[in-house]
Amino acid sequence: MSEISAEQVAHLANLARIALTDEEIGHLTTELAQIMHAVEKVSEVATPDVPPTSHPIPMQNVYRDDVVGNTLTAEEALSGAPESDGSRFVVTAILGEEQ
Amino acid sequence: MSDELIRLTAAELGEKLAAGDVSSVEATRAHLDRIAAVDGAVHAFLHVDGERAVETAADIDRRRAAGEALGPLAGVPIAIKDVLVTKGMPSTSGSRILEGWIPPYDATPVTKVRAAGLVPLGKTNMDEFAMGSSTEHSAYGPTHNPWDLDRIPGGSGGGSAASVAAFEAPLALGSDTGGSIRQPAHVTGTVGVKPTYGAVSRYGSIALASSLDQIGPVTRTVLDAALLHDVIAGHDPLDSTSLNMAWPSMAEAVRRADVSGLRIGVITELDGEGFQPGVRQRFHEALELLERNGAEIVEVSAPHFEYSIAAYYLILPAEASSNLAKFDSVRFGLRVTPDGAGTVEQVMAATREAGFGPEVKRRIILGTYALSAGYYDAYYGSAQKVRTLVQRDFDAAFAKVDVLASPTAPTTAFKFGEKLADPVSMYLNDIATIPANLAGVPGISVPTGLAPEDGLPVGIQFLAPAREDARLYNVGGALEQLLVAEWGGPLLGKAPDLTAHELFATEEGAL
């Protein structure tokens, strides 16, 4: 199961939006294979009859009344942004030329 | 006077403050002086806000003088792990991508400690986004273990543990996703508690793995941990996973500590191969001491614990890769624009490449892989099944015993660089602590002495069923009392004098 290629790592990096260098992709390809080899152990006991657990303490859906609570002001929400125009976050082009 | 103040426990300091023997400003200044004297060598703090700490302390002193009824920790200084957001104080989670970010709100545990009159001193160092067991993955350089400055203080909360071990703060807040409170406690001779999942609000805690993360106390004594636990626990409507229930007083559990008739289960799978002899020796001595004082020691098996690390290193990266998607160069933190500008996606990719360290990238890629189509069932799905099996092991064990015990971690503090090149061996540090996070049960680490072979501190871990955190304070408090009586004083009394070291280093530097 743990055959991982450099092309796969490059694809994962693109999905995760990290512009990895070729050198990083090289390291990660080796390391990922080692780590996956170690974690594949889970399949030894994860048989079909065992139900999965996603949350440690069983809980029901949690609701609250639909009333406005304490919220950040626009100024507070924008205070940490790399770029804003005072009321909105500013980003660069959303679409590339080929899109 | 100043040295006496920093060596008091939080409970003792709280009493002196209440009695008017000392002011919060004096106590706060004493700790700020200590930080100035030793933190150059220890590097427990990423940020110290001395001016605001003194202002907060002065306000508490004024309120006390005006006759206001204050809690037992009012006026006591506290250090805060940088994973918790703090209004007006930088919050980086140990990452370059959040360098200089000042959050517009407080995390709920921070709101609670402020409301209880505690005095925040600053933010403590950690592995980037809490990914690590040594603080070597902090973007701002590692924290040094006060017992031996060439060794790791544990992680990810090495900064919080080192700050209390070095007497820079009597109390600290930590977060524990796979052992990040308990393992640093073990290697620094301090106390650390991971409460039941949901006992303490995670609102404002920069999420690593949402189904595993829990905030808890980092202290020098079990009573101090209990007092802080009582302040931070409780339901929070801002965290939907927060448990809506009434908690008993943990401080009361320590004050009434009594192990007679208590059934303690020793986990067979966590008491053998891979554990350093001195770690096991002190563990068994502690159990014998408890047995002599009325506890019953029973051996129990947890056959699926050996699959915990594998399951953890699938679940954690999967959840982390989703949680860390928020670092997108738009709303907060770093923005790196590649040459020739580019689209928002290219800016995002360049920012994340520059802003994340190697361990964070490793885990995001791992998590993205584990969640990708075609692999999801084999990896993430199987890991969730292991989680069920680990919970069943706990259920079976707690049907026979009141609490479980194991060494907190397999070894004493290792040297910097020793495990950095081998991620899998680094991950093995958390073998004893991870099962509790997978099952959501609470755990405590209490110092049991120094390993004879290297003179470094080791701890014992107790685990209790979910919602039974008070049992940990009972057994931990009882053991601490017995051990301190045997030693003739607290273990940290044997730690090296850091100011002497600092002087020595300065003299050497002068030559």
UniProtKB/TrEMBL annotation, chain A:
<keyword id="KW-0436">Ligase</keyword>
<protein>
    <recommendedName>
        <fullName>Aspartyl/glutamyl-tRNA(Asn/Gln) amidotransferase subunit C</fullName>
        <ecNumber>6.3.5.-</ecNumber>
    </recommendedName>
</protein>
<comment type="function">
    <text>Allows the formation of correctly charged Asn-tRNA(Asn) or Gln-tRNA(Gln) through the transamidation of misacylated Asp-tRNA(Asn) or Glu-tRNA(Gln) in organisms which lack either or both of asparaginyl-tRNA or glutaminyl-tRNA synthetases. The reaction takes place in the presence of glutamine and ATP through an activated phospho-Asp-tRNA(Asn) or phospho-Glu-tRNA(Gln).</text>
</comment>
<keyword id="KW-0067">ATP-binding</keyword>
<comment type="similarity">
    <text>Belongs to the GatC family.</text>
</comment>
<dbReference type="InterPro" id="IPR036113">
    <property type="entry name" value="Asp/Glu-ADT_sf_sub_c"/>
</dbReference>
<dbReference type="InterPro" id="IPR003837">
    <property type="entry name" value="GatC"/>
</dbReference>
<dbReference type="Pfam" id="PF02686">
    <property type="entry name" value="GatC"/>
</dbReference>
<keyword id="KW-0648">Protein biosynthesis</keyword>
<keyword id="KW-0547">Nucleotide-binding</keyword>
<comment type="subunit">
    <text>Heterotrimer of A, B and C subunits.</text>
</comment>
UniProtKB/TrEMBL annotation, chain B:
<keyword id="KW-0067">ATP-binding</keyword>
<keyword id="KW-0648">Protein biosynthesis</keyword>
<dbReference type="InterPro" id="IPR004412">
    <property type="entry name" value="GatA"/>
</dbReference>
<dbReference type="InterPro" id="IPR023631">
    <property type="entry name" value="Amidase_dom"/>
</dbReference>
<comment type="similarity">
    <text>Belongs to the amidase family. GatA subfamily.</text>
</comment>
<protein>
    <recommendedName>
        <fullName>Glutamyl-tRNA(Gln) amidotransferase subunit A</fullName>
        <ecNumber>6.3.5.7</ecNumber>
    </recommendedName>
</protein>
<keyword id="KW-0547">Nucleotide-binding</keyword>
<feature type="domain" description="Amidase">
    <location>
        <begin position="26"/>
        <end position="472"/>
    </location>
</feature>
<feature type="active site" description="Charge relay system">
    <location>
        <position position="156"/>
    </location>
</feature>
<dbReference type="InterPro" id="IPR000120">
    <property type="entry name" value="Amidase"/>
</dbReference>
<comment type="function">
    <text>Allows the formation of correctly charged Gln-tRNA(Gln) through the transamidation of misacylated Glu-tRNA(Gln) in organisms which lack glutaminyl-tRNA synthetase. The reaction takes place in the presence of glutamine and ATP through an activated gamma-phospho-Glu-tRNA(Gln).</text>
</comment>
<feature type="active site" description="Acyl-ester intermediate">
    <location>
        <position position="180"/>
    </location>
</feature>
<dbReference type="InterPro" id="IPR020556">
    <property type="entry name" value="Amidase_CS"/>
</dbReference>
<keyword id="KW-0436">Ligase</keyword>
<dbReference type="InterPro" id="IPR036928">
    <property type="entry name" value="AS_sf"/>
</dbReference>
<comment type="subunit">
    <text>Heterotrimer of A, B and C subunits.</text>
</comment>
<feature type="active site" description="Charge relay system">
    <location>
        <position position="81"/>
    </location>
</feature>
<dbReference type="Pfam" id="PF01425">
    <property type="entry name" value="Amidase"/>
</dbReference>
